[in-house]
Amino acid sequence: MTGSALDDDGSRMRHVECIAGSAMHRLAYREWGDADNPRVVICAHALTRTGRDFGPLARALAPRWRVVAPDMPGRGESDRLRDPMLYQIPTYVVDAVTLIARLDVERVAWVGISLGALMGMVLAALERTPITRMAVSDAGPVLARAALERIAGYLGVTTSFPSREAAHAAIRAISEPFGPHSDAEWDFLVDNVIVPRGDGTFTLHYDPALAVPFRASLATPGDVDLWSTWDKIRVPTLVIRGERSDLLPAQVAEQMTRRGPHAELVTLPGVGHAPTLVPAAQIDLVRAFLERD
User: Fold this and answer.
1) How confident is the chain (293 residues) per 10-residue block, as mean pLDDT?
2) What's the pTM?
3) 96: cis peptide before it, omega within 30°?
4) Tell me, what CATH number does 33's domain have?
5) Which domain holds residue 279?
6) What span, in angstroms and rounded, lies between the C-alpha atoms of 40 and 108?
């Protein structure tokens, strides 16, 4: 474990060594709140995002929770993987189990956005799962093909920008489905995923090779069906869906309330894929759900 100096968002940056394939890699994570608090919530980010996204939510939860937000491999402060085909959910779930062991707790709550939601679903479906309560943002047991193709259209394609202003314009345009945010929230969301190069240009924080397994998965026609996973989940679950989501169809979200954990469903008007859990109203939703524990 690294030291616990505070980052500029009030978190402590740490890391744990994980294994994927035949090599080790460093998984970086941020932690807010009392490091000895046994009430732990893990926050897992979306496909091309970082754990820093959870800063506003973490600060709201930190008085009562120890909040942990990893950068999954190939993103942010974590190592990139030698084999790009390992950038898939089984790797991320194994890393999550290693992280939980490092935290020295047996039970955690889980908050996941998109990819992070899928990770939580897989982990919650396991026998003897460590997850006790789970909030998922805009992902479920059916992933719509059209949305996956839309994401594949930009994933790893444009990773360099001539200026901060150009980066902000491009990323805000791609991220329009996130829905309404203030200018300050947009600045926060964009600055979380761009890295200055020192010559005035900017690049994205993630390994462009994330696109390799993602595009390979599209060789299988049709939507992705994960109902067999969802139906094994028994922990209390909140589903937060964007009304305009193209990844989680409305009819699938409704079925999620009747199958598996019989989830509670909240649909956010004017929001697409995926609710960021940055606006205050979305933070309040998650906090209220977690505090029922």
Assistant:
1) 58 96 96 97 98 98 98 98 97 98 97 98 98 98 96 90 95 95 97 94 96 95 96 98 97 98 98 98 98 84
2) 0.95
3) no
4) 3.40.50.1820
5) 12-143+224-290
6) 5
